[in-house]
Amino acid sequence: MTRQAEGAAPPLADEALPWGVLTTAADGRVLSLNRRFAEWCAAPADQVVGRRLKELLAPASRILFETHVVPMLEVQGFAHEIALDLAGAPGKRVPLLVSAIRRAGAISITAFDASEIRRHERELKAARRSAEDAAAELARSNERLRARSDELLLTLESIADAVITTDRDGNVTSMNPAAEALVGRSRADLVGAPIAGLGEIRTDTDPPQPLTWNPTRDEPVRSERPIALWRHDGVRRLVSASMAPLRDASGAMIGAVWVGRDVTDEQMSARRRAYEAVHDRLTGLFNRAELERRAQELVEVQGERAGVLCHLDVDQFRVLNNTLGNRAGDSLLVQVAEVLRGSLRHSDIVARVSGDEFAIVLAGCGRDDALRLAATLCQALAEHRFEWQGQAQRLTASAGLAPLSPADPLATVMATAHVACGAAKEAGGNRAKWSGRDDAVVQQRRGEMGWVARIQDAIAERRFVLFFQPIVPLVDSAAPHGEILLRLRDEQGRLLGPGEFIPAAERYRRMQDIDRYVVEHTLAWLAATPEVEVSINVSGQSFGDPGFSAHVAACLASTGVDARRICFELTETAAMGDLQAALTFIATMKARGARFALDDFGVGLSSFTYLQKLPVDVLKIDGSFVRDLVADPVSRAIVESIRRIATLCGLRTVGEWVEDAATLAALREIGVDAAQGYGVGKPVPVAAWRDSLRPHAAPLTAG
Q1: Exposed end of the chain (fewer CB within 10 Å): N or C?
Q2: Annotated region Disordered: where (predicted)?
Q3: Per-residue pLDDT tens over the stretch 366-399
Q4: C-alpha–C-alpha distance, residues 631 and 634, integer Å
């Protein structure tokens, strides 16, 4: 029996239909199909007949067929436009749109190729997804724009720069809080008003020039220098400003934005720094650097006709400063500056170069004119009455003059004028002195100037040599003790005494360098020589230097030397020259265990008064009294009185310049504690210190 005979339905009449036609039995077996359906199945019709319909479907469509189509046929007898996928050639699916109807125990199925529909559906779905994605991205973009807008608005409200926008007619449309603070008015008052209402603007020049607001300008404008904004309340602010046009999408100008930064404080600070860079802070005069710059320019332009440099120094300023205090000293210097300003010509240049020292360029002056002008300055200061706390103080000054010349470096001219000023002081002060080649004092001071470089070279090359002179006890015995003295080995190998270089070092303030050298090398020697104690001289320049105490402390720490092995020697003159600095240095070193001696005691008129102010341990009686002790009753009486007062104060005494046995015996008879001089021990290099000692020694501590 053939398949045709077994089936219930005859073959279809029209094989040329463009859609598929299929007939199945109630159980889903294919009874017949037309050519289009067979093509979709990719098999001849006779191979399809007899198979179940669901076997022809793709797996997902089988489930849909069983769960939707079959129940619908059973319930209502038809199913319309069901989308199914036919399993065609291997790996290929044929999308169909199927309608089915149950008739006389068979099921008639009509199917249309849904490829185009599916393609359109896919495109529609893709378009929908794209539209949804675009909408979501647009929403996100809008959110970002809103957040960015809020951020920019917050930034605009928070930035220190003033920002003001206008419309094309120049009327204010917005302004931030910084703009309100700058112009001193609220945005409620100014929005809608012309921008010119912000205030009057001018150039920051002398004299100032008026400026105009120009918000309709079609190009950006930035002020190269700050402009001055005069507000409606009269306040003047310096502003760094710029203005730029605002444009719409087409590029048309719709307004302008003005940005301004208040630079008043920084401009004032910059001007103050510029002023302080060339002026002395206390007196308001030029400082040394500015005077040197202007003097150099004058010499370069005028040559030999540049003029004269005058160095002026207040006489006895240190005494007044120490007596009345630093505030009084500062007030005096301010008044000196005022007197100098009022006495000089407009063309002259005056500066405070240090402490109580002033320098003046007397422009275009020759020798005689310069001496007259300098004498006028000295007279004006002498006639000035310095008032402090109800007391009038007389004030004098000394001046030294040196000609400005292209042939002489400015530093040399200033040093020469300084030397001449020193010579004027030594001649009694309150006078002016010319730095003439025939002046012996000036020439001597000029020669001392050469020592400045030689001292620095000697320190760098370690040509200073330490000597030891014993201080011999006259009462008891203990550790050996001696004074450290200094010699200098010159460039030719000769050994020079302190009288050769100390005056120059003191005059040109190089004693700090020498004292540091002595302390450093003495402590290094003490560290290697533990059985000896020493006295070290300290100049007034050193204990007036805050860094000197720190240097001594560092040397003590690095060497491990016990400060109790050291006695620092100060002179009356140095100590009273800067009493507060001396007291500070003494207190600092005593806290470490060091002792102090007052050297050359008795020479000054107020020596005994100093004992009430200076907490020293030892008095070294000046050698001028000790030397004549045996022959001169007055000298003996002075030494005896010093010894008695020292005993009352709990101080030990040392007699200096002991040259013979008679003097030594007299000191022992008077009760002086120790002696120093060539008669008891000559200075020797520290390496040979033992050779200078006698069999007995004792420390110089307060008794």
Answers
A1: N
A2: 199-219
A3: 999 999 999 999 999 999 988 888 888 888 999 9
A4: 9
Residue 229 contacts by C-beta under 8 Å, 6 or more apart in sequence?
A: 182, 183, 198, 199, 200, 201, 236, 237, 238, 239, 260
Give the angle 353-357-363 at the CA atoms, nearest 5°.
70
Cβ atoms within 10 Å, residue 194: 14
Tokens 């979709």 label which residue?
A: 40
Residue among 452, 441, 422 nearest 312 (CA)? 422
Q: What is the greatest pairwise CA distance in the chain?
A: 176
Task: Give CA–CA dist 375/97, Å, rounded.
Answer: 127
Q: What is the spatial distance between Cα 496 and Cα 31, in angstroms, rounded to a whole number? A: 142
- Of 264, 210, 272, the closest CA to residue 239 belongs to 264
DSSP 128-172: HHHHHHHHHHHHHHHHHHHHHHHHHHHHHHH-SSEEEEEETTSBE
Residues 116-144, mean pLDDT to the nearest whole number? 84
The fold adopted by the segment(s) 452-692 is: TIM Barrel (3.20.20)
CATH code for the part of the protein at 279-436: 3.30.70.270
Contacts of 292 (CB under 8 A, 6+ apart): 410, 414
| Residue the block writes with tokens 């007949």 | 49
Alpha-carbon distance of 691 to 703, in angstroms, equals 28
Supply the angle between the helices 367-383 and 326-343 in degrees, to the nearest 10.
130
Q: Which residue has the tokens 């997804």?
A: 129
Name the token pair of 633: 């009753």
Let me know: does 417 contact 310? Beta carbons within 8 Å: yes
pTM, to two decimals: 0.49
Quick count: other Cβ atoms within 10 Å of Cβ 671? 15
Classified by CATH at the fold level, domain 162-269 comes out as Beta-Lactamase (3.30.450)
Distance CA 170, CA 245 (A): 11
Q: In whole angstroms, what is the distance from residue 399 CA to residue 202 CA? A: 48
Q: How many CA atoms lie within 13 A of 672 on its CB side?
A: 30
The closest alpha carbon to 65, from 28, 31, 19, 94, belongs to 28
For the chain, which residues make up each domain, given as ranges? Answer: 3-113, 162-269, 279-436, 452-692
Instruction: Tell me if 221 sits within 8 A of 242, measured CB to CB.
Output: yes
**Contacts with 184 (C-beta within 8 Å, 6 or more apart), sequence order:** 231, 232, 233, 235
Helical (H) or strand (E) element with 377: helix 367-383
Lowest mean pLDDT: which of 148-162, 208-222, 552-566, 607-621?
Answer: 208-222
Specify the amino acid at residue 92. Answer: K
Write down the residue that tokens 């011999």 correspond to.
Answer: 472
In which band, very low, low, confident or very high, does the pLDDT at 13 lie, cut at 50, 70 and 90? very low
CATH fold match for the domains 3-113 and 279-436: no
